[in-house]
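FW: tagging you since you asked about this chain on Friday. Here's the raw sequence from the shared folder, copied in full. Didn't touch anything.
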Amino acid sequence: MQRSDFPALPAHVGIIMDGNGRWAKQHKLAVALGHRQGTENLREIIRHTDDLGIGALSLYAFSTENWRRSPEEVAALMQLILDYFASEIDELDEKQVRITILGDKEGLPEKQRETLRRAEERTADNTGLRLNIAINYGGRDELVRAARQLAAAAREGRIRPEEITEEVLAGQLWTRGQPDVDLLIRTSGEMRLSNFLLWQCAYAEFIFPEKLWPDFGVADYDAALAAYARRNRRFGGR
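HL: got it, structure written out here
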């Protein structure tokens, strides 16, 4: 579908890419192969988002809680970070996609940290789609960090407590300068945020497709966008 096919489109879409492990189990494969399969459709979803002129796309790739998974699965996910950027960075840069990593890069292994830093630096001046990839990310951790930064600023006399507004706090988040999430999609039928963009999803519309992430294609994405366009967004009004 094209932009003209939708009566309204979100400015910012968030996706919790859930179901890779269950997909692997269904296909009697190792979990690592489920995660790898989950990246195959990602290329088309990003391209389609860009083609539709949606301004920002946020993807939940690895949470602060995911470190609790088995060492084998964590190692596979860390390797996937390296492989993904090695294969995709040239096209993303050519299409003017600007990459922002949401999360604590310092908590990642050196190779992954350097790969993400280079991706952000290379695309920093691009003017197209804002592609936010949440890696070692937690929504509560993001808010705690913002509170600490503002507390330090107040202690040093750079800001007065009464000057701290929603806009000021939002300016301390990793998504600063971007619109809030309008549409949050979580695949696999699970109906929870799992600590993803808690502040930014304050008035998001939620859609929970039953399909597992590796099976979620452009047609499914279009269906979610069409459902969003039919929503009556009141933002607390009538």
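FW: The longest strand covers residues 56-63.
HL: agreed, and The CA atoms of residues 30 and 199 lie 35 Å apart.
FW: great, closing this out.
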